[in-house]
Amino acid sequence: MKYHFIILCILSSISGYTQNYIDIIHTENTNTPQNEFKNQPNSSDSISSKLKKIHVNLTLPIPLKNQNTLITGIVYDRINTRFTENSTSIPVSSIILKTGINVSYSDKWSALYILLPKIASSFENKITRSDFQIGGLGIAKKKKNDFLSYKFGAYFNGDLFGPFLVPLFGFYYKKDNWEMDIIIPSYAKINYNLSSKVTTGINWRATVKSYHLNNSNITTHQNSLYMHHLSNEVGVHLSYEPIKGVIIRAISGVSLGRSFRVYENGDKIDFGLSLFRFGDNRNQLNSDFKNGQFYRLELCYRIYLN
């Protein structure tokens, strides 16, 4: 069974509720060198494609009574690449609305409940039911001490490839110059403060997303299609905070198991559970990319809670 992880981009902005800051605005611009398709001869005639990604994550927390917080916001993603050797670059985008609440039950226990309706499409034709998805996230935190908190919960989404459920387990640790924020199987961030303004570290994150390709002529198939995106990115970063709350971060790394698999609408799995896909007899219509490098520039505006 092939590698199958998910990255919850939502967690990048709400992770502040397990630590002493909230990322209000987080933007990313990712580029890669030419990516070759698999199953091609190693020659100068090999077909390749660039890959560009844009990510914008806006979170607006609204304090309520009893230390509870209403969570609102929006996440925008855009991917531009070739899905087949014979197609031109096709951009796909998604917009997620975040609506939820962070509930404080006691000094040690709190939980986040959030609804995540999404539209994900190539936007080449009129919007239909296939362009919409809906998901939800619930994650609880237990504070062990001033340095360590545990996190656990689950994410569910009605993806175009089928229903998808991911149990989540992790922890947040911060002491002296070290900071670790880990949610398995989605992401891991390990930071070390070189100074009050400069941080370095290691990042890993996994991605599973799906987009409706409405009326895209990338194959000879006449039926509507969807794209199933998977990747695992491992990299090192260097961050600089010139002004308190404004963070500039450069990341360089490698993307493993990267793919933008195209299927006909209706060609689905029975159920996805984290690493596993049950009833996956789909007919993939294109080739995967080979593993390759990526370069990312991030800009973040952060509010410190104390």
How would you describe the overall organization of this protein?
The protein has 306 residues and is mainly beta. The chain has 1 helix and 18 strands. The strands form 2 sheets. A 14-stranded antiparallel β-barrel has the order 1-4-5-6-7-8-9-10-11-12-13-14-15-18. The longest helix has 6 residues, at 9-14. It is globular.
Low-confidence parts lasting 5 or more residues at pLDDT below 50? Answer: 1-17
Proportion of helical residues: under 10%
Main-sheet strand order equals 1-4-5-6-7-8-9-10-11-12-13-14-15-18
The succession of helices and strands, N to C, reads HEEEEEEEEEEEEEEEEEE
Q: Largest sheet, if any?
A: 14 strands, antiparallel, barrel
Note the quaternary state here.
single chain
- DSSP strand (E) fraction? over 45%
Output the keywords:
mainly beta; 14-stranded antiparallel beta barrel; two-stranded antiparallel ribbon
Outline of the structure:
The chain has 306 residues and is mainly β. 2% of the residues lie in helices and 63% in strands.
Write the layout of secondary structure elements.
Layout: H1 9-14, E1 21-31, E2 35-36, E3 48-49, E4 52-63, E5 69-81, E6 90-104, E7 109-121, E8 132-143, E9 148-159, E10 162-175, E11 178-184, E12 187-193, E13 198-213, E14 225-243, E15 246-264, E16 271-273, E17 276-278, E18 292-304
Parallel strand pairs: 10-16
Antiparallel strand pairs: 1-4, 1-18, 2-3, 4-5, 5-6, 6-7, 7-8, 8-9, 9-10, 10-11, 11-12, 12-13, 13-14, 14-15, 15-18, 16-17
